Amino acid sequence: MSESGTAQRIDVFKTYKLYVGGKFPRSESGRVYEVTDSKGQWLANAPLGTRKDARDAVLAARAAVKGWSGTTAYNRGQVLYRVAEMLQGRREQFAAEVAAAEGVGARKAAALVDAAIDRWIWYAGWTDKVAQVAGGANPVAGPFFNLSTPEPTGVVGVLAPRAGTGFSLLGLVSVIAPAIATGNTVVVAAAEQAPLPALSLGEVLATSDVPGGVVNLLSGRTADLAPTLASHQDVNALDLAGAIDPDGPGAAAALEASAADTLKRVVRPAADPSAEDWTAAPGTGRLLSFLETKTVWHPMGI
Amino acid sequence: MAKTKKTETGTGTGTEQPVRKGSLFEYAPAPESPAAAGEIATGYGHFIGGEFVDSSGSEALKTVNPATEQVLAEFAQGTGEDVDRAVAAARKAFADWSALPGSERAKYLFRIARIIQERSRELAVLESIDNGKPIRETRDVDLPLVAAHFFYYAGWADKLDFAGYGPNPRPLGVAAQVIPWNFPLLMLAWKVAPALATGNTVVLKPAETTPLTALRFAEICRQAGLPKGVVNIVTGDGRTGAALTAHPDVNKVAFTGSTPVGRAIAKQLAGTRKKLSLELGGKAANIVFDDAPLDQAVEGIVNGIFFNQGHVCCAGSRLLVQESVQDELLDALKRRMGTLRVGDPLDKNTDVGAINSAEQLARITELAAAGEQEGAERWAPECELPGAGYWFRPTLFTGVSQAHRIAREEIFGPVLSVLTFRTPAEAVEKANNTPYGLSAGIWTEKGSRILWMANRLRAGVVWANTFNKFDPTSPFGGYKESGYGREGGRHGLEAYLDV
What we know:
The complex is a heterodimer of chains A (302) and B (499). Chain A has 10 helices and 10 strands. Chain A has helices spanning 51-70, 73-89, 91-102, 106-126, 130-134, 167-181, 196-206, 222-231, 252-260, 285-289; strands spanning 32-36, 42-47, 136-137, 144-152, 155-159, 185-189, 215-218, 237-239, 265-267, 291-299. In chain A, β1 and β2 (42-47) form a beta hairpin. Chain A is globular, with a radius of gyration of 20 Å. Chain A starts with 31 loop residues before the first strand and ends with a strand. With 499 residues, chain B is an alpha/beta fold. Chain B has helices spanning 80-99, 102-118, 120-131, 135-156, 184-197, 212-223, 238-246, 259-269, 294-306, 326-337, 358-373, 405-408, 424-432, 447-456; strands at residues 4-5, 43-44, 46-48, 51-53, 60-65, 70-76, 174-178, 201-205, 231-233, 252-256, 275-279, 285-288, 318-322, 377-379, 385-386, 395-398, 415-421, 439-443, 461-464. In chain B, the strands form 5 sheets. Chain B has a 7-stranded mixed β-sheet, sandwiched between helices. Chain B has a 5-stranded parallel β-sheet with strand order 9-8-7-10-11, sandwiched between helices. In chain B, strands 2-6-5 form a 3-stranded mixed β-sheet, covered by helices on one side. Chain B is globular, with a radius of gyration of 22 Å. Mean pLDDT of chain B is 95; it is low at 1-19. At the A-B interface, β4, α9 and β10 of A face α8 and β19 of B. β10 of chain A pairs parallel with β19 (461-464) of chain B. Chain B: GO terms for molecular function: oxidoreductase activity, acting on the aldehyde or oxo group of donors, NAD or NADP as acceptor. Chain B: Residues 1-22 are annotated as: Disordered. Chain B: Keywords: Oxidoreductase.
């Protein structure tokens, strides 16, 4: 096909990097690990994120809480919508990555990417509605103005989904977007065997007005990253969507027990994670899981 | 209160004490009759499957009147077998109870609310005798709120489709509920009312120092004709509680108590599918700005820390006062503390009753001593304390730094630590400098400052120009290590629904 005849063009491979604090560091370990497609073919080397990388990411996430939670809900909604816009522009790239990660056909992969774009938009619309749905005035028996308002919990540690239909990108978006829609910041341990859509999502976020540190994406061994997030004193909540190993340091029960030390809010993995359908309507469960209800009392009188 | 002993004089500031004895405002005793508590049996078993039953074990505990140290009754130390029986009874009852139309479940809850109102004097006196808190509080605060919680949640039972958790939200099943000794009946109401309204059945374990009103509540369930097994009460200490929360056939665990125990329960439940809500400790900051109405603020501070002898998880135990009004405020506060009446809980004039147990008194004593050792200045009004029983004078510490134990640890007694600040930002910083996050208070005339502060305080309940207000319609619960989940209001339903 080539005009010039014989020489085939050599593809430019991509160096995948972590996304932490709005920057793209290589791992502190200086090491990578092999990522293969569902048939075992080499796709790329992913950075081998370490416990130190996880702690750095928590620092970045904590630093971003004040600014992000202080942003108006209207503004947060526009930022989330902007993510959808940026993702739309890279639809083909993500379709290829999802197809490789999940072993699905091109058409199915494209549909999953479309669903991920739509999910950002769905959560973009939630930012300025959740306080009205989850909060409200309480008619106490006395001369008081009494109002309950939902507020973000703070830093949420997320184990990205590792199974189920659409886990690699749609599932990932389904756990990140609800947490940040309400003003939390997140540190995400990407699916160990399929981290490439997550690492590419970092490039989308970096170009979509999401302040640095609001979303931090790590690849590496779940056994290193997950216990670090679960035990970290400065992580307020834990989404265990991807904690599906039956035992070992990445197992849900061990992580939940570790999270109990700091009384983190924990979202447990589905009873059967491999049967989870991330294309299904998400509901408000995750949106409300990373909120605190603050109730303010004030006397009324003249 | 036959004999009295003189306690040591307050140390510290050397401020002149107002002399109470023989003053214009001395009141004659106004004792409530202990007989109004009704008959207290010498021994109690459990309430399982609608019947009062003996424990399978032989171990019995004693509950004492903390104001007299007299043994009130023996009650059973619940065994694993007892817990099994209670959970089985609750499981058996669950099918019918959850299938009952909400409108019918509501009627049972309304009945319970009414009977509580009818028997409120009896319950208030019994609560005061068993717990040591003043009759003024059980009569005017605890019991009205207990009835109000049953009324409030009764009305939810047939409206769950409209609660915002989607159509047809389902109950969880059997709820294991473990409650503390500071508000025995109120904590029971906070747990039992929403659980029953949403169609769950319960096994409740009251605290081992205050089991009597829960057992009296069992009688009320019988009077209300509540189906057998819907409410089960198993008594005992922490061992019984651990057996209950660990039971494989419970679907929901609700706990109110200390943060260490809450943490242990969270660990115990890790890896299970049991839903958990925790209402744990606190170290609330009560923040007074220089423009605050000081007299009202003083009342709020006193109510914040000396209400229920300070046995309140949301007690305002850290007073943060703006430096410019510190002296004025502390003078007024000491004057007010000098008028607090400490003594017989059954005297209607009593403001501060007995410490709930010898163990708790020892803990308060130890922490107060640590305050002195670490260099804070201790002050307490001179007052006579009864000779028998467990008592602790309302106590104030000034010169407290953030590193002091009395500024960090939950004392759960009538001990107030005073810190100062200069700017609102510093107040926020200090208020949030704790692993707890249950409540906070703000005193200022400036509305915009209240809202600015309230936004920044990491606490579940923020009282502005008031303190320690509770209402069944108002969600209550903590941030951070004060636990998770909310009790009260529409939010309180979520803990008992499969959402």
